[in-house]
């Protein structure tokens, strides 16, 4: 069971799955580009059954906050992707205010674009409980170079690079909190090199990096099981 919080002035809409374990971190999960909060209901319910409270925020240009005619149109994606990531990172403060919880009680989880968002928030607010990044990246400028090569675009302008670096997690000091990185070795959408760069940036035994063989850009059942095991090992 969950409760839906509608948009209220500047507050943010989210889906709330109350858990029973008051000592466990609150899990805030961000979906990917062209995804939906509804696509994570099943995962949220599974984690809720384990006692966790789970929050699924609605992301700008998705669900109740508007949609895009064609998410996979190259021009649309190029124009909106980074702005969506940056706005969602900035909005985290409003989400926490509306939830009436301390940032220090939150563990961030993100898949694909959600992995970028979660990593950006985790870097900006170092008191978080932890981070799980699935098929995303914690090295924004590195991943943008991959996107540009794939699309046949030129290099970043100085202004564009300055904007990305303002949010880029590898520009921040790693907090030392537990991190789980998961990526498919056959991912054709987001190159895993961004994860490797972030892993090297953290350079800590608190960071686990699991590569899944013969997996494309998917959040597989094996990955879900890996997430659950990691949570139990670190927070039970």
CATH homolog superfamily = Alpha/Beta hydrolase fold, catalytic domain
CATH topology title: Rossmann fold
Q: Return the CATH class.
A: Alpha Beta
Largest sheet: 8 strands, mixed
Under the CATH scheme, the architecture is 3-Layer(aba) Sandwich
Average of the residue pLDDT scores: 94
What best-fitting shape do the alpha-carbon axes yield?
Answer: globular
What does this structure look like?
The protein is an alpha/beta fold and 236 residues long. It has one domain: 3-Layer(aba) Sandwich (Rossmann fold). Helix content is 40%, strand content 17%. It has helices at residues 41-49, 74-99, 113-124, 140-151, 158-167, 193-202, 221-235; strands at residues 3-5, 14-17, 26-30, 54-57, 106-111, 130-134, 179-184, 207-212. An eight-stranded mixed sheet has the order 1-2-4-3-5-6-7-8, with helices on both faces. Helix 6 links the parallel strand 7 and strand 8 (207-212). Helix 2 crosses helix 3. The longest helix has 26 residues, at 74-99. The relative contact order is 0.13. The model has no long low-confidence stretch (mean pLDDT 94).
């Amino acid at each position: 069971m969950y409760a839906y919080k509608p948009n209220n002035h500047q507050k943010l809409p989210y889906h709330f799955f109350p858990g029973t374990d008051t000592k466990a971190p609150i899990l805030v999960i961000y979906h990917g580009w062209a995804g939906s909060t509804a696509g994570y209901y099943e995962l949220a319910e599974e984690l809720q059954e384990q006692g966790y409270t789970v929050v699924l925020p609605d992301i700008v240009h998705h669900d109740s906050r508007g949609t895009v005619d064609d998410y996979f149109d190259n021009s649309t994606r190029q124009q909106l992707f980074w702005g969506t990531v940056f706005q969602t990172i900035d909005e985290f403060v409003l989400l926490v205010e509306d939830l009436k919880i301390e940032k220090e009680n939150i563990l961030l989880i993100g898949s694909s674009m959600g992995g970028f968002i979660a990593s950006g928030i985790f870097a900006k607010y170092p008191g978080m409980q932890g981070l799980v990044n699935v098929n995303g990246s914690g090295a924004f400028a590195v991943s943008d170079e991959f996107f540009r090569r794939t699309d046949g675009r030129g290099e970043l302008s100085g202004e564009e690079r300055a904007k990305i670096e303002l949010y880029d997690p590898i520009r921040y000091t790693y907090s030392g909190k537990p991190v789980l990185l998961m990526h498919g070795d056959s991912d054709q959408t987001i190159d895993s090199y961004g994860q490797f760069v972030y892993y090297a940036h953290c350079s800590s035994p608190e960071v686990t990096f699991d590569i899944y063989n013969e997996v494309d850009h998917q959040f597989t059942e094996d990955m879900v099981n890996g997430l659950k095991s990691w949570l139990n090992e670190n927070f039970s």
